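--- STAGE predict ---
source: upstream dedup step, 1 unique chain passed
mode: sequence only
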Amino acid sequence: MAAFVKPSVESSARTLLRRYYASEEVFHAEAERLFYSRWFCVGRAEQIPDPGDYVLAQIVGESLIVVRGRDAGHGKSGEIRAFFNVCRHRGTRICTEERGRFAGSIQCPYHAWTYGLDGRLVAARYMRDTPGFDRHDYPLHTVALAEWEGFLFVNLAPEPEPFDLAFAPLIGRFSAWQISGLRLAQRVEYDVRANWKMIIQNYSECYHCPVIHPALTQLSPPTSGRNDLSVGPFLGGYMTLNEMVGSLTVDGRTVRPPVGTVSGEDLNRIYYYSIFPNMLLSLHPDYVMAHMLWPQAPGRTKVVCEWYFDTQAMAQPGFDPGDAVEFWDMTNRQDWRVCELSQLGVGSRAYTPGPYADAEQLLHAFDIEYLRVMREA
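--- STAGE serialize ---
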């Protein structure tokens, strides 16, 4: 729900061609040029707090193991690493459970090749006498991993762009919210029958809000605010709250104190950012919400929505995130319905690219970045 933008969008700006939303060929090209070569959000560090804890990340056909090791890292109980979920013996997929805990090692279910939590091959049955075999030559294939504001990002490229360089526009930008210290209160998963780009584009404009989101419009004017990131892979800005509205909740009120050191004008603003290619980050005075998009097919996306709150607020008797969760679950479902209708319409032979409105400047900016990365600009 990014801000209404006063500057006019280019008069020639048009929506993307149908194939970008419906083509299997384009979807496979996106996997190679976007999802396997850009920094992709796979969750939160708090999901794996202890050594041996792991989650699986399924990124368009590739399965990754994200696991916390035993070696100390960054002042925590162990360094977090990511590996391809592929045994180095005969390629067997090692893990099938979405999350769990390894009892000190990672073992392939086929021939019991066993790896340490750091990916080293520590045991390979009956291979000692195999000529030329050295277990040190067969660690799990490592995937680049970085942590930012408590979120975990992976990059499957052989030589990924350094994370600090790729995310330079965002590093330190949200320090007032102290996001890394917040904790998950609730998670909702959605199966949306729409292309992942439609979901990001819908999030990036409030042109539709008076029609689709009457409750949201009562709390936050759809023509308010400004965008402060309008070029490149990170896009968004803020919208303001109406007078006497404390946060985006069912009744517009909140008994929770501001998170972190949020103060001043930020108490009357909601910030919305799309973080290319699969994350939507929403910053409220008293909580933070994130959507993670997991593309499944040209016309299908799994969306995971999570709400994070201050730990002290969560420890208070009677803490209930339901006022925020219920509000956004309603809003999400309204969005998913129109995204699915858009997907159906774009799939028609009658569809031709239409003109963007002034309030859709960020969508045009997204298209420019998308086509650049796809090498079709």
